[in-house]
Amino acid sequence: MKRLIFTALMAAAAIGAHAQTKTTVTTTTTMSADGKDSTITTTTTTKSHTKISIGHPDSDSTHRAKSKKPGFSMSLTFTRFDLGLTTLLDNGSFKLSPKNDFLSYRSWKTSNVGFDVFQAGYRFDPTFKIYVAGGFDWELIRLRNDITITRDPDMSALKYTTDPVDYSKDRFSSAYLRVPIMFDFRSNDNHSGDHWSYVFGPELGVLLTGRMKQISDEHGKQKMNYPYHFTPFRYGAVARVGHGGFGIFAKYYFNDMFDTQAQKGLKNVSFGFTVGF
Asked: Whole domain around residue 113: which residue ranges?
């Protein structure tokens, strides 16, 4: 995942802007007092830039002025980089039930990471916009116990083995394609060109893969990709509040994390910081 995030950052930086050079030649003919014509040629070179935004799609990286004209917009982007913590809710409780206790996790190392790479929307006026975006979202669960979730097609429950290995990292994660549909309210710009934003709306997710990543002295680094019964389609709500390029977020998914019967009612909620608001 670190490699994917690094690649996305480098690609966004490389996209930047490309320039087109346009040369205009102006010819002027004048007549002197002795009746002879003389020609003066002037060459003017201008450059025009096409940009793909990094950060808020309405922002200009050179000038702080924001585009607030009503109308439709669509762009590739790299924005709303979320970094926060994930908490599991077992039928409304923060404490895991005995049947889910094998998923006991390290709270401060169980995280949510995500970002958007596409956005299309319509601005109704300077303070209100609706947009749909596309991006990626990861839930990274750092397990406390030295276990391996197995690739078992049985839909009744997640299966696992207890390993005679001391893992320095035992992480159980999911990767989703996220599609948020957001209602974006903003205040008027201050003297620095910044504003407050209040954004909320539903978010849909399509499972890309599940993964177990383990690191130990005995086996080194191991990665195993498999759906692991993560729900193939999820839906929830997202809210963000921010000022300038920074903010906070909260996410809650209404359906279960897994499609097994034993894990019925196990959900997750995430909260943290957003950069590129």
From this structure: 52-275
